[in-house]
Design goal:
binds iron/sulfur cluster; eight-stranded mixed sheet; 33 helices; Rossmann fold; globular; seven-stranded mixed sheet; alpha/beta
């Protein structure tokens, strides 16, 4: 038996092509393996001869001049959508989901040469739709990519290839088998018999992020130890969900301190979230339902040539806050006329041409002209933006070329089609460089060999992951149609898993995460069959940006030259300062006094940071070290989302009462969903957070409304002008400036300041300066009697108000004023030592902190 290795199959292919290049074929199972074959063969005479069965069908149709047009997936969707509306008689929103399910069912049936069961109403309608679709294809001499397999069978018989090397074809469908046997009577088959040879370890991590971070750290170390990136393979059963998180995690890692860690994969990144494309989708949406569209995205887009006349996204946001309206043409603000003119121009552009368009093709032409006029077509963009623009235009080309594009298409459907196309069919490659290792689906490793293999995400729910039903069908219907589907899928999964593990030549690391977005995971049975997972030994992330801060921190502490460090924006300046400065202690009174003597206006956050830890203040406000952990975390974005939601709501409403409770619930739920969606984060943890905010009687939203009812019951209301309001106070020579989240007031003049927290709240009154100083500021601005300030925690799993102050408001304010004065003096004196009693496990500067090295006197 021949060794089942891709190298061997490729060597045979190369050998045969020397004498018969046109009629030697290498057929592999999927695009991943095809790409690897290209890498091994390097210069194949004819690229089409290295193929999957699906692309083989296309090549046959093309080369035999069948005259059949292969329709792209976008066109297939348009046809299915039109037929579904006619046959299923549903509203468009439901038709969208039905259409996706019908396409999935059609593909499965076609691949398995099976007919749709027509003994139920739903089945009959599906069968009717499939038959109408096939009739359309016949009339128009067109096929989709899957039906092409059947059309290619008679032509394949005529072609009869000389040499066909089939490499590890395991999950071939009936239709694929028919095509193969028509194409060749004597295939040379390579079948893989997985034989694990590498040293294998089975690990468990606490979370999915930890699993990815630790794997990235290991990969960086391997590369620095001379292992080339192509010798490292990362496999996962859930590639689509892993890629966005990996992209986020890997961005923080560097190999040899300078080169970002990247990966390569045949999967493509959807363009829907690339800012330049998001702005175009917002433009189309503005022409349909302007009030529901966030025009800030358009104002923010530097690629649109709009006469902005000083109107920025921030100004628009302020106008919305003040007026509580998104009636863009009639916003009443100080900036009235200019703002209205700018918004009217945007809306006119979005609406005018589309008003006269009726068919999909006309809408596409109108959009192209708008984009041309707005300068988007030619505007200089980043490489990713440029690639996304090219992908967007080819999506438009494919849609415009579809026959169904001649049909009438309402504008809301146009937006739906574009959004779906950007999400599903138009993609750009992930950026890569010389450190790019490979990541792929588990099944792509069958029969291949790579020295070092990591297989991550091996939880019970991801592998095996076999649904008992086909889309739209019941378990029974699925069983009748494909009786051995479950068994076959289970066998295939087991085969691919063992093949993936056997693909490792030297080391094989298998792992799973015990929790994923708060839910407990159990290990896959395939994993436990190998061995019980051990708790992974957690390595320090030396190759991540936070890791590098540690080294820099030692140097700062010892007043030495900074080593080459990354992730610290001011590293160069800091190093320069240390090099050129007189050899004085880092925290010389003289230097600080000179710098901060003139500092008269400060924010409460500036003072709070110092109150908590003078050394953290020094790193954050003086050296301006980048806080990578915080900057990249979803937590930061969650804070923005909730502030936006509550700002919008309380500029429209002054309270929530029992009468308005239900309406408030609906409105806030919509605002939260929209803002979470707008954040553009597609990770599972983000989805889970959205659910925790919205789902059920124990949700954060339900708890939030209960608390708001209590405020209203006490007689508090919120004036729109006291939402996210800038406040200022004079504290005997020190000026305090900041923005208060919300001020609630009673008719008798009592008020209190509320601060939203989506994470932890402060529990120590000595370091909580924001609430009392804002309270003083509000008193100085509008008078009234302050009550004790409150934190309103609105976290995904916790909601409620709290305050760290035990005494009354006057004591709270007096203490804070005194502390503010002391802190300013201490800063001027250059006192910046670490906090000796620090228990802060989450300090972003933990790695830099001198305290961890040798205490405060170090
Ligand atoms: S770890 Fe503690 S002492 Fe060190 S900088 Fe952070 S807060 Fe200050």
């Amino acid at each position: 038996m021949k060794p089942a290795l891709l190298e061997t199959a490729c060597a045979l292919y190369s050998q045969e092509t020397k004498t018969n290049p046109f009629n030697t074929w290498l057929i592999v199972e999927n695009e991943d393996v095809r790409h690897r074959a290209f890498e091994l063969i390097k210069t194949p005479v004819l690229q089409t001869r290295i193929t999957t069965i699906k692309t083989l069908a296309h090549t046959i149709l093309k080369e035999q001049n069948a005259g059949i047009r292969i329709i792209p997936p976008e066109e297939q969707y348009l046809l299915f959508s039109a037929l579904a509306k006619k046959i299923f008689d549903k509203k468009s929103a439901e038709t969208k989901t039905i259409t996706e399910n019908l396409i999935d069912l059609y593909i499965t049936l076609t691949l398995n040469c099976a007919e749709c069961p027509a003994d139920t109403d739903k089945g009959q309608k599906a069968a009717e739709l499939f038959s109408a679709y096939r009739a359309w294809c016949r009339e128009n001499n067109a096929v989709d990519a899957i039906s092409a397999l059947a059309y290619a069978v008679p032509l394949a018989e005529q072609m009869q290839a000389d040499t066909v090397i089939c490499f590890c074809l395991k999950s071939t469908t009936k239709q694929a088998e028919k095509l193969l046997s028509a194409f060749t009577k004597n295939p040379i088959s390579f079948q893989n018999e997985p034989e694990p040879t590498a040293e294998t370890i089975v690990l468990s991590y606490k979370t999915v992020r930890e699993e990815l971070e630790q794997t990235c750290e290991k990969i960086c170390r391997m590369q620095e130890n001379g292992i080339p990136p192509e010798d490292i393979l990362l496999l996962t059963p859930a590639l689509q969900t892993t890629l966005p998180l990996l992209e986020e995690v890997a961005a923080g890692f560097r190999v040899n301190k300078t080169t970002p860690l990247t990966f390569k994969t045949p999967e493509r990144k959807s363009i829907a979230n690339i800012p330049a494309v998001r702005a175009v989708l917002a433009l189309v949406s503005a022409g349909i339902n302007a009030e529901e569209t966030d025009l800030q995205i358009i104002l923010d887009c530097p690629h649109f040539r709009i006469k902005r006349r000083g109107i920025t996204a921030g100004k628009l946001r302020k106008a919305v806050r003040i007026t509580g309206s998104t009636d863009w043409r009639n916003l009443q603000t100080d900036d009235d006329e200019t703002l209205k003119t700018v918004l009217a121009e945007i809306l006119d552009t979005a609406e005018t041409r589309q008003k006269n368009a009726e068919t999909l093709r006309e809408r596409i032409t109108a959009l192209r002209q708008d984009l041309q006029d707005l300068g988007w077509t030619e505007s200089p963009m980043t490489p990713a933006g440029h690639a996304a623009r090219t992908a967007f235009f080819s999506l438009l080309d494919r849609l415009a070329a579809a026959k169904a594009a001649e049909k009438k298409c309402p504008n809301y459907e146009f937006l739906q089609i574009l959004t779906r196309g950007c999400r599903k069919n138009a993609g750009i490659p992930y950026p890569e460089n010389e450190t790019a290792f490979k990541i792929a689906k588990i099944r792509s490793a069958a029969g291949t060999k790579t020295p070092h293999v990591f297989i991550i995400g091996l939880t019970a729910k991801s592998i095996p992951n076999i649904s008992a039903t086909l889309p739209l069908l019941t378990v029974q219907e699925t069983k009748t149609l494909l009786p051995d589907r479950y068994r076959k899928s289970a066998e295939e999964t087991a085969y691919y898993f063992s093949s993936a593990a056997a693909a490792a030549e030297k080391t094989c690391t298998l792992s799973y995460a015990k929790t994923d977005t708060g839910k407990t995971n159990s290990p896959s049975p395939y994993l436990t069959r190998i061995s019980e997972a051990e708790d992974a030994e957690i390595q320090e992330l030396q190759h991540s940006i936070p890791g590098s801060q540690k080294t820099a921190g030692y140097a700062i502490a010892k007043c030495q030259n900074l080593p080459e460090a990354f992730g610290i924006q001011s590293a160069e300046r800091t190093a320069e300062r240390i090099r050129t400065a007189e050899p004085v202690p880092a925290f010389s009174e003289e230097r600080f006094s000179a710098l901060y003597r003139e500092t008269k206006t400060v924010s409460p956050t500036f003072l709070e940071t110092y109150a908590e830890c003078p050394f953290a203040w020094y790193l954050k406000h003086h050296l301006r070290l980048e806080q990578t952990d915080a900057a990249s975390s979803e937590a930061l974005r969650l804070g923005n989302v909730m502030h936006n939601v509550l700002e919008t709501y309380f500029t429209r409403h002054d309270r929530i009462t029992p009468e308005t409770k239900d309406a408030a619930y609906r409105e806030l739920a919509e605002l939260i969903s929209a803002e979470m969606e707008r954040a553009g984060i597609k990770t599972p943890s983000w989805k889970a957070k959205t659910l925790q905010y919205l789902d059920g009687t124990k949700s954060t939203l339900a708890g939030f409304i209960e608390q708001e009812l209590a405020f209203a019951e006490q007689g508090y209301t919120t004036d729109a002008s006291w939402v996210e309001q800038e406040v200022e106070a004079d504290l005997d020579g020190i000026s305090i400036k900041g923005r208060a989240d919300r001020v609630l007031r009673k008719e008798d003049g009592t008020f209190f300041v509320l601060d939203y927290k989506t994470g932890n709240v402060k529990e120590n009154a000595e370091t909580a300066l924001q609430l009392p100083l804002y309270s003083e500021a509000v008193r100085q601005m509008i008078g009234g009697t302050p009550a004790v300030g409150q934190y309103f925690q609105i976290a995904p799993n916790s909601v409620g108000i709290s305050t760290p102050f035990e005494n009354g408001a006057e004591e709270m304010i007096a203490y804070a004023k005194q502390r503010a004065k002391e802190i300013c003096e201490a800063i001027q004196s250059g006192y910046c030592k670490p906090n000796a009693d620090c228990k802060n496990r989450y300090c972003p500067f933990k790695r830099v902190c001198r305290k961890t090295e040798g205490g405060e006197d170090d």
